[in-house]
Amino acid sequence: MLPILPYLINALLYGALAAYFWHAYWSPGARALNTQAVLSWRDHWMVLVPLALHTSLLIRSAYAPDGLHLGIGNSVSAILWLTVMIYWIGHFFYRLDGLQILVLPVAALGALLPAVFPSIKPISSSDSPAFTAHLLMAMLAYSLFTIASLHVLLMAMLEKRLHRGTLPAGLSGLPPLLTMEKLLFRIIWAGFLMLTLTLASGLMFSEELFGRAARLNHKTLFGFVSWFVFAALLAGRHWRGWRGRIAVRWTLAGFLLLILAYLGSKFVVEVLLGRS
After folding, report:
1. Which are the contacts of 258, defined by CB distance < 8 A and separation ≥ 6?
2. Are strands 67-68 and 63-64 parallel, antiparallel or unpaired?
3. Do the beta carbons of residue 53 and residue 9 sit within 8 Å?
4. Positive or negative CA dihedral for 32, 36, 41, 46?
5. Mean pLDDT, the chain, as a whole number?
6. Which run of H or E residues covers position 142?
7. CA distance 157 to 99
8. CA of 102: how far to CAs of 10, 52, 152, 211, in Å?
9. Cα dihedral sign for 191, 86, 110, 4?
10. CA-closest candidate to residue 166, choices 154, 157, 177
11. What is the pLDDT of residue 65?
12. Residue 189 has pLDDT above 70, yes or no
């Protein structure tokens, strides 16, 4: 069992930063103080404080002399670390105001998981370049679809408040819905590409990656079903102009299936059945 205090401090830092963003940009009093609610550069750089600690702790828990440890705790933590990193870098290129209030609380949970669910046994083939590439693509796919799911929830909140005619400060400074929608589908396209490469490499190089031929199991089935869901969403967007609630439902459905594909099976095996 890892010492929990550093991981708890990391989670509290994420949580404190989320609370700060809420007070500064989303609380009722923020409307009078900052009607545009645009994230300042100072606040953007503040995210690096818990992110740097998260990086250090993740390296400490995942890398060991006997190999790479990627149990359920480290896996989820790594995905959410990468989610925060993509969000932070993406802010230099796109308006991602508002996402921090959703990303940071989720990251707080992820930062704590390696101590709660420590990995006992290292994974095999972790020194293979092919496995490293496969793992990186899978992590990128999960992280991009995590951001897409949080982004689509933010869009749903904005649309709902627009219909009511009342916007909190955090929503009043967001870009127009059409602009957010374009960004959403760019994120989904990037995640879909990573997911396609992950599934293709898993099928073509299964023996090199996992030491056995590809086979149909829970993980493979849900992985391909999620791929078809996102493929249908992108096709519907291109040919039928899907948007709004349809995009919300299909994005969240595909993300849920993706969670069931990998993290769901790891949770059952490692936590419920107690196997490493």
Report:
1. 141, 142, 145, 195, 222, 223, 226
2. antiparallel
3. yes
4. positive
5. 82
6. helix 129-164
7. 12
8. 17, 19, 11, 39
9. positive
10. 157
11. 77
12. yes
**Max avg pLDDT among 109-118, 172-181, 184-193:** 184-193
- Binning pLDDT at 50, 70 and 90, where does residue 214 land? low
Residues sharing a CB contact under 8 Å with residue 270, sequence separation 6 or more, in sequence order: 71, 72, 117, 276
Count of Cβ atoms closer than 10 Å to residue 20 Cβ: 14
| In contact, 108 and 15? CB cutoff 8 Å | yes
**pLDDT per position as a tens digit, 70-110:** 788 888 999 999 999 999 998 888 877 778 888 999 999 99
* Phi, psi of 228, deg, nearest 5: -65, -35
The residues spanned by each domain of the chain are 5-272
Residue 215 pLDDT level (bands cut at 50, 70, 90): low
Provide the H-helix boundaries in 25-92: 30-33, 41-46, 48-62, 72-90
Contact in structure between 149 and 188 (CB atoms under 8 Å): no
3-state secondary structure 205-252: CHHHHHCCCCCCCHHHHHHHHHHHHHHHHHHHHHHHCCCHHHHHHHHH
Residues in Cβ contact with 92 at an 8 Å cutoff, skipping those fewer than 6 apart = none
Say whether pLDDT at 33 is over 50.
Answer: no
Q: Measuring CA to CA, which residue among 8, 151, 141, 15 is closest to residue 78? A: 141
Burial degree of 28 (CB within 10 A; 0-12, 13-18, 19+)? exposed
